[in-house]
Design brief:
Elements (H helix, E strand, L loop, with lengths): L1 H6 L4 E9 L5 H17 L2 E10 L11 H14 L3 E4 L5 H11 L2 E4 H12 L3 H15 L8 H5 L7 H39 L4 E7 L5 H9 L16 E8 L2 E7 L9 H6 L1 H9 L2 E7 L5 H14 L7 E6 L7 H10 L4 E2 L8 H13 L2
Parallel strand pairs: 1-2, 1-3, 3-4, 5-7, 5-8, 8-9, 9-10
Antiparallel strand pairs: 6-7
Helix pairs in contact: 2-5, 5-6, 6-8
The structure holds guanosine-5'-triphosphate and magnesium ion (MG).
Length: 367
């Protein structure tokens, strides 16, 4: 038994920490924990424990209260926790202070998301976009407490060369960003040419929250075989396929990267190239997982992100997916009535697929 566990690769043991300023937000915090747990699982870790602090203000030095941080330190030591994950974006100073105090790896939500992106990036375009986001995250963090500085020992007497090293490092990163952006521009150009060639063809893009079932729906519609996984951000590349809605009506449909709450702006900006299939589309299909709590909120988050990429005025069809998992029909009907022109569907059982096809056809013909 013991030998077995030794052979198995031990999963990273992660402690989740979240802060709310009002106990009334507890419900939301629990939901966020669930999502964070899913993200940790996707990244290959295992959640050991979740800690929620209710505190009116964020502590500028430790994010959570120092007392709480000390409490976490003892948990980390006692249970051999590898990583403490904060449900926020920590400032460079907070990260450093927490690391020094707790003595474990301190990771924030955005780093985790970028990690998953890096794990799932397949094409050159996706890889460049992830690296760009990571570099843009790192750049402002090189000031003040750079790892580079502490590696030199830090403190009196090391400041000169340390600062210099910092400057060199910064310049190196900036140059790399420039090079990657140039390469990305070239890839975008190629995409534009392809898109122009498809000008006469009606273009549809599937958008939505991560894990909503976009790739599954794409497979159901275009008889594709895209990667479908019960994990977050399995799709990072925009896959585009032709398909016939009926014998003489051909369209192209694109699958896109999923959205999530508080997606860091540098990540959205980096993925502008992939998301251009959404900005180029004639019609967006907004896929929503109706089987999980927080439906309205996720719709709002997706709409906000669409706005950020300049898609707010595009025509949209809202598709409530995974209806096979919802037992209460009244719940489904309530959502359908609340969102004008929405469709109830299961990409997995294919229930409602024909209705969606008809709706798309109707839209194209009446355009
Ligand atoms: N029960 C059920 N599960 C579904 C349905 N549609 C998708 N799923 C499951 O939901 C999970 C996510 O599906 P994907 O198609 O990968 O979702 P996605 O929106 O492409 O996700 P990302 O690319 O990771 O953002 C998978 O485990 C699917 O099998 C459905 O209609 N019913
Ligand atoms: Mg997908």
């Amino acid at each position: 038994m013991k030998q077995n566990t030794k052979q198995e690769q031990r999963k990273e043991k992660v402690l989740l920490v979240s802060l709310i300023n009002d106990s009334a937000k507890r419900h939301k915090a629990i939901y966020r924990f669930e999502e964070l747990e899913g993200l940790v699982r996707t990244a290959g870790g295992e959640v050991f424990e979740k800690i929620l602090q209710i505190r009116e203000k964020v502590d500028p030095s430790y994010y959570i209260g120092k007392g709480k941080a000390i409490e976490i330190k003892s948990i980390v030591e006692r249970f051999h926790v590898d990583t403490v994950l904060f449900d926020t974006e920590l400032s460079p100073a907070q990260q450093k202070n927490l690391e020094d105090l707790i003595g474990a790896k301190i990771v924030d939500r955005n780093v985790l998301i970028m990690d998953i992106f890096a794990l799932h990036a397949r094409t050159r375009e996706a890889k460049i976009q992830v690296e760009l986001a990571q570099l843009k995250y790192r750049l402002p963090r090189l000031t003040g407490f750079g790892v580079e500085l502490s590696r030199l020992g830090g403190g009196i007497g090391t400041r000169g060369p340390g600062e210099k090293k910092l400057e060199v490092e910064k310049r190196r990163i900036k140059e790399r960003i420039q090079r990657l952006e140039k390469e990305l521009k070239f890839i975008e150009k190629v995409r534009k040419v392809q898109s122009k060639r498809r000008k006469e063809v009606f273009k549809i893009a599937l958008v939505g929250y991560t894990n909503a079932g976009k790739s599954t729906l794409m497979n159901a519609l275009a008889k594709e075989d895209l990667k479908v996984e019960d994990s977050y951000f399995s799709t990072l590349d925009a896959t585009t396929r032709k398909f016939y809605i009926d014998e003489n009506l051909r369209v192209v449909i694109s699958d896109t990267v999923g959205f999530i709450e508080d997606l860091p702006p540098y990540l959205v900006a980096s993925f502008r190239s992939t998301l251009s299939v959404a900005t180029d589309a004639d019609l967006l299909i907004h896929v929503v997982d109706v089987s999980r709590p927080g439906v309205d909120e996720r719709i709002r988050i997706v709409n906000d992100t669409l706005k950020e990429i300049g898609c707010e005025s595009k025509s949209k069809i809202i598709v409530f997916n995974k209806i096979d998992l919802v037992l209460e029909e009244t719940v489904l009907l309530r959502y359908r009535d609340r969102y004008d022109g929405s469709i109830l569907l299961s990409a997995e059982s294919r229930e409602g697929i024909d209705e969606l096809k008809n709706r798309i056809k109707e839209y194209i013909l009446n355009r």
